[in-house]
Write a sequence for this structure.
């Protein structure tokens, strides 16, 4: 059995990142899109922690905490936008959110 | 001095006759018409005789001209009509109704009125059965008026009035039988060809007036005889003299303007006798003789006159050898004899030329009147091929015509011998040592003249009768009114020559002496220019040569007559023409008059075409007109077309390039850009996110691969 190296962590993080991106790009439900954004952020967190362990300092973990806080705030704001939108349009289909256009 | 002072009446007598015919002629009886018209000419003749007698007393042999100015016709005393002469000074334009009588015009006066009177008497008989009797005599009188004005004029302008008048009367009289197209064509031809000569004449007269400052003959002769002339002056005088000679060619039927005279035989025979034998055609000779002072100063012009005269003489004589119409032979004979006269004038023998005019008037008028008598006897037949053996049947006509023929052949002691031989002798002398070409041409012409005139006599009067039987039964001698003038003219043809018997034959040459003052030569010239040699009578040492030449010409006449006797004296039906037998192409050319009329037709009348292209001078006109219409106007039209094309191009450019690209282009461009640009603001969030991811991937790929 191989050693669990930093690379493994990075690959997992990358995979999660890609899944998150695919979710953002392709899901119709706005809530799912927000959840995918969270997934992207968490993938980034994982990446940072892996590098923190590799370098042996705490810079990565520190930044990860910043990102968690940031993600939380962002989720709150995002949900707030969603509710405001729902009140207007009675739908949570992202394809129908197209008022800001030509 | 009564007659001299009233000299202006001489032309007015026939003018009165013409006026009477014009106003009253239609209502008058034939007898009245004859009496009036013949009477006025007879009165004119008598008046002229008295006038000339008075003149000889007036002049006492000095030849001083008598001038009578009746009124100022063209001219103004106060300088309105001044013109600049050659040397820059001003001269007054003056042409009076003035009459001049000097030896030259007195000779012309006498034979014009005399022969005219005889021909008028003859016409009474000849035209007795014709329609338009009063019209004929009116025109004949008008002609006499014009001719007398021409002869008696004292300046070129009044001479030109007479000149044009005789041309007009010639037209009216040739076209007398106007129902015949050939006659009207001939009349047109005569007038038009004459007109060409008139243009030359008027230019020559104006040049002389510009050079000398006056139109009067006395002034011009005075200045020409006593002036100093440099080389440049001589050139101008040569041009003036040649232009005057062009006029003389037209009027007196020389090459190249002779073509009207043979066709003029369409007119009645008295017309041919008067106008085209004795009087009108001599007007050119008169004018050149009158201008002798100018011609003498221009030796080149004199040479031209002599050469053209000689060429015309031989040319016309050659055509006359083969013609079959009796009047046509006489017409070409007239052209040929006129050539002799100009030959004489050209070599400086003015008196000899005038003498030949004088004698020729008698025998040529006699020949024409005699031929008229023959035609009258033959009930209108003019073709000699259908005549023959008339000798015994119309004896008076035969005898008089024989006398005239002997005269024209130059058999002594008849008139033609003296005048013709004088001309030939002067032509021989003028060669001055080099080969006497002009004499040789004259000699050849004399031989041909003898031949064709003898041919005429033999075919008409000898041989076997070749006419149809009805015509033969009607042959009769002409009435006394016709034969009378024939006899008178015959007497004149015999005696007229005796007035000019040269010194070499023991005579006094009264004729030449009478004319001497007119042709006196005392012009002073600078060393670079010498006038033509004066022609004094030959000295003793030349007598032998003169007699030799005389014998040669008489011999030529006899040989020519004898040849003709051999061929034609016994001519029966379908007699052979010797020239046609020996040299058919020569006969063809001569019979067709060297095809000159055809050549003129091609060159000038514009009736001939090759395909669609018209020939000759009119063709050149048509070509110019085509050039103007197609090429010049075509160019103008093409310029217009080019302008329209440029405008079209310009429109296209404006519409498609300027408006299209310039103005609409940015708009279209903007719209084209806007389509992708819209995608930036689609409004679909997930699209935005996709674009971001794509960009991120792009960066990543770029940096990894770098």
């Amino acid at each position: 059995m191989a050693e669990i190296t930093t690379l493994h962590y990075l690959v997992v993080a990358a995979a999660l990142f890609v899944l998150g991106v695919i979710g953002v790009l392709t899901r119709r439900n706005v809530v799912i899109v927000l959840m995918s954004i969270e997934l992207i952020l968490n993938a980034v967190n994982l990446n940072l922690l892996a590098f923190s362990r590799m370098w042996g300092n705490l810079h990565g973990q520190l930044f990860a905490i910043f990102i968690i806080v940031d993600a939380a705030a962002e989720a709150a704001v995002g949900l707030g936008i969603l509710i405001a939108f729902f009140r207007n349009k009675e739908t949570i289909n992202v394809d129908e959110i197209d008022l800001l256009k030509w | 001095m009564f007659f001299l002072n009233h000299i202006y009446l001489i032309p007015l007598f026939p003018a009165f006759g013409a006026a009477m015919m014009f106003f009253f002629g239609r209502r008058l009886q034939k007898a009245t018409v004859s009496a009036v018209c013949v009477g006025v000419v007879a009165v004119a003749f008598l008046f002229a005789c008295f006038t000339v007698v008075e003149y000889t007393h007036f002049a006492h042999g000095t030849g001083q001209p008598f001038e009578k100015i009746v009124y100022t016709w063209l001219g103004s005393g106060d300088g309105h009509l001044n013109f600049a002469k050659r040397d820059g000074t001003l001269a007054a334009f003056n042409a009076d109704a003035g009459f001049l009588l000097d030896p030259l015009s007195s000779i012309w006066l006498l034979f014009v009125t005399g022969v005219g009177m005889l021909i008028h008497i003859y016409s009474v008989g000849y035209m007795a059965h014709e329609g338009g009797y009063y019209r004929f005599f009116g025109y004949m009188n008008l002609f006499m008026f014009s001719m007398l004005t021409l002869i008696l004029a004292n300046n070129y302008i009044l001479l030109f009035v007479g000149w044009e008048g005789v041309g007009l009367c010639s037209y009216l009289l040739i076209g007398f039988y106007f129902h015949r197209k050939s006659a009207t064509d001939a009349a047109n031809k005569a007038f038009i060809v004459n007109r060409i000569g008139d243009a030359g004449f008027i230019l020559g007269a104006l040049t002389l007036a510009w050079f000398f400052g006056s139109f009067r003959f006395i002034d011009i002769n005075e200045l020409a005889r006593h002036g100093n002339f440099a080389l440049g002056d001589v050139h101008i005088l040569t041009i003036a003299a040649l232009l005057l000679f062009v006029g003389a060619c037209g009027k007196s039927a020389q090459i190249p303007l002779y073509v009207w005279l043979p066709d003029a035989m369409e007119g009645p025979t008295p017309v041919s006798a008067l106008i085209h034998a004795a009087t009108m055609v001599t007007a050119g000779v008169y004018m050149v003789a009158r201008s002798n002072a100018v011609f003498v100063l221009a030796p080149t012009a004199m040479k031209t006159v002599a050469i053209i005269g000689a060429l015309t003489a031989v040319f016309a004589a050659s055509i006359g050898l083969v013609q079959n119409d009796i009047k046509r032979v006489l017409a070409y004979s007239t052209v040929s004899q006129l050539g002799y006269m100009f030959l004489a004038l050209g070599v400086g023998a003015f008196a000899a030329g005038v003498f030949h005019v004088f004698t020729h008037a008698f025998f040529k008028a006699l020949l024409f009147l005699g031929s008229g008598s023959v035609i009258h006897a033959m009930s209108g037949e003019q073709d000699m091929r259908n005549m023959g053996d008339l000798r015994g049947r119309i004896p008076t006509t035969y005898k008089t015509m024989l006398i005239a023929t002997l005269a024209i052949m130059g058999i002594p002691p008849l008139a033609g011998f003296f005048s013709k031989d004088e001309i030939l002798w002067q032509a021989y002398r003028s060669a001055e040592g080099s080969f006497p070409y002009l004499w040789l041409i004259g000699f050849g012409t004399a031989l041909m003249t003898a031949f064709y005139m003898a041919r005429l006599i033999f075919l008409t009067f000898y041989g076997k009768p070749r006419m149809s039987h009805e015509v033969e039964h009607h042959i009769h001698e002409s009435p006394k009114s016709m034969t009378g003038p024939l006899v008178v003219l015959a007497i004149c043809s015999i005696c007229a020559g005796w007035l000019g018997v040269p010194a070499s034959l023991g005579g006094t040459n009264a004729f030449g002496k009478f004319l001497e003052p007119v042709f006196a030569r005392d012009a002073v010239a600078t060393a670079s220019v010498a006038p033509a040699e004066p022609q004094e009578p030959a000295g003793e040492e030349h007598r032998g040569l003169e007699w030799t030449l005389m014998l040669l010409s008489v011999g030529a006449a006899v040989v020519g007559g004898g040849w003709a006797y051999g061929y034609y004296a016994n001519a029966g039906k379908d007699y052979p023409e010797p020239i046609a037998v020996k040299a058919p192409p020569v006969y063809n050319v001569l019979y067709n008059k060297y095809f000159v009329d055809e050549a003129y037709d091609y060159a000038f009348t514009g009736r001939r075409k090759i395909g669609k292209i018209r020939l000759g001078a009119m063709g050149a006109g048509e070509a110019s007109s085509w050039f103007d219409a197609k090429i010049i106007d075509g160019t103008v039209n093409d310029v217009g077309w080019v302008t329209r094309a440029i405008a079209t191009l310009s429109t296209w450019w404006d519409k498609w390039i300027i408006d299209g690209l310039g103005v609409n282009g940015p708009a279209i461009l903007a719209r084209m850009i806007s389509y992708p640009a819209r995608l930036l603001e689609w409004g679909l969030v997930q699209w935005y996110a996709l674009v971001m991811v794509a960009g991120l991937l792009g960066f990543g790929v770029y940096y990894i691969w770098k």
